[in-house]
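User: Can you fold this complex?
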Amino acid sequence: MTKKFKLKSGKKKHAYLHKRHNKEIRFQLYGITAMLISFTMLAILLISIISRGYTAFVKTEISLPIEFSESVLVPDDDADYGSLVKESLKKMFPEASGRSDRMLLYKLISNNSSYRLKNLVNNNNNLIGKTVDVWFFASADVDIFEKGYISREIEEDSRQIKDKQIVWLDKLKEQGRLRKVFNTTFFTEGDSREPEQAGMLGSFIGSLFTILACMLLAAPIGVFAAIYLEEFARANVFTDFIEINISNLAAVPSIIYGLLGLAVYLNFFGLPRSSSLVGGLTLAMLVLPTIIITTRNAIKAVPPSIKDAATALGASRMQMVFHHIFPAAMPGIMTGVVLSVARTLGETAPLLMIGMVAFIADVPKTMIDPATTLPVQVFLWSDSPEMAFVEKTAACIIVLLVLLAAINGFAAYIRNKFEVKWE
Amino acid sequence: MFLLQLEAILGNMNQTIFFILIWLVGILAFYTGKKRALSSLQKGGGVTSLPRYFGYCSIIWAILPALLLWLFLLKSDQLIVLFYILIATIPGWLLIFSNKPSLFHARKHFEKWLKIFLILCATFSVLVTIVIVSSVLFESIRFFKDVPVFEFLFGTHWSPQTAIREDQAGSSGAFGAVPLFAGTFLITFIAMCVAVPLGLFSAIYISQYASSAARKIIKPSLEILAGIPTVVYGYFAVVSFSPFLREIGEFVGLSISSESALSAGIVMGIMIIPFILSLSDDVINSVPRALIYGSLAMGATKSETVKNVIIPAALPGIISAVLLGISRGIGETMIVVMAAGLSGNLTINPIESVTTVTVQIVTLLVGDHEFDSTKTLAAFALGLTLFVVTLFLNLIALIVSRKYREKYD
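Assistant: Here's the predicted assembly.
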């Protein structure tokens, strides 16, 4: 003890402690600030998406008195239903006389109005000869105008809705011929080039098929592989290699799996491009390591006393594993599988590689039909120049996030309800 | 519904019927095998294992040959296939009728097959790696026949548009990937500048200062960030964050590109926060209590303990978390595809637009149907580079964290 510590005394000691305590407080502040920033980011992200998207769950409709005149409808095959709408609009707004005015007038109504009329007449033949009020989809521009995304103040030239159209719309509103209803189209239709007719059902079903194909392959293989590695594998070079391999696979960028899908499934096996089957098989490779790792952890958590008891009562190794360990680890395994379902649902990049980014209007019926998934739909819509697709994109994200929250909640439920806490 | 899916996948109705038929035969074999064992029991012959194991063995021997035959040899839909398939189930029937249940050890036999199946499942992950490496490598080698490796790795000009006609100007296209690497590292660097301090400080706060009740709320809610799909971050970057940055830029007199590296990098950083947070939280928590209590007992404040004891002790783990975060950032695709640029600028200015390796892979491959052009092959060469770099980072992270674990275990 050559070095002598000189204890600080009096005022000096006080100042020294003060300095240290200030440092302590500052350090704690750094931590709080870091957390607050992270939380703010999360909040901004969610708020910006919800505030953009919630309006897409409502759509504008316009009602027009349609005269189902026999002269137009009787030559049944190619009856011009579109002209009925046009006639009605002309009658309501006789002031629109010029060609360009008429074009503006017709643009108020979505271009699927003739299909709607055709369906109406096909379902109900009594309509012919009568005049009935029918609700039509407003066109996308009218829809976002009514939702307040287009200001009346900006100059007419740079506004999608012209002054004349605004006058007509106000008139319609006065007559009660303009209403906002819950947007069922968004949940019951496939994609469309027209924003007001576009829905997310197609991509939802696509996601469902993709998850199904993925889990049918990945879940059994992953779980059995984990059982082998945890319970049967001897500690040797090969097992070690498999283990390093799995932990590395878990960190390979997802886009590489897309390259794998493209090279192997599409080019080598010749499976149908853009199909949810190929999407699922590709994502199966992606979630396989995750499933293996979570299953192994679940099996590890089963106490050795159960193994010993089973073996002592004469169970073979296989019986011990499949009759005792496996059921005991089941809640943990299921949690892992459900979480990888969430991962599958949110994955986008590999699916771009295997051609699931095409515009597909039809709702897929089988796994080999061309399809997109929810996140890919988000990507596709976010690329569209139309303003009306911005709210659709955000709404699709809201649906996606709600689904993910539900899946994660389900995983948490399984964990809390069924998982046994071993003493 | 199920039949419809099956039929679509298998191609036609006959195939579906064959497939279902094979399984029906399997079920029949199961019950016959089981019944024979049972009747042997009733006759007083005795059995070696539970009757159902005889059933399982019968299924294996009836179905496996038939399925293999149907899959690999006779992928046709003619009815004659049915005949072959039925012949292929003969081993199952032979097993049932030629072995005496009192002598044939069905359980051991079945467990042998089960173990083989388990081993196959475990090797499947190795197979995936081999397939990834070989498919990417194979296409890359084809690419490097057209473009020398040296030019690819050190060329500074990237414009992969190959001409349609031979005599067109600039027909060759340029495949110097340095601008892409630079762009990738710039964006990843910005992302780590956001994620590491925020993630690390949050982890320290959560593990050292927060009460356990607060911890239970804070950690899961920050992990929400990890569950958000990357395409959502991309949308956020494009629609909200880039315009916001532009406005700030205009306010201070900078013209920030709408596809700036800064915007993509910061949003990517937000995505990586929970990753760094939970990894470093784990390592901080695994620092032995004795070290921490020792430091506190000597009169050190909590912050001094963190700085002088916890961080040095947890450093290898934190480094490995950061390395994994970097590898994540390099491989991240959707955020940069949506928020970063397409043209390869060689710059370190964060407010300019840069492109990344993953962006180029996507743009080269999306919508491109022909598979032999240098353009599409270039995507595989980029993929190989990406794979090698991330593999390298992951391996280092693994080695570092293993060393660390050995230190305290």
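Chain B has two domains: 2-123, 174-404. Strands of chain B lie at 158-159, 174-175.
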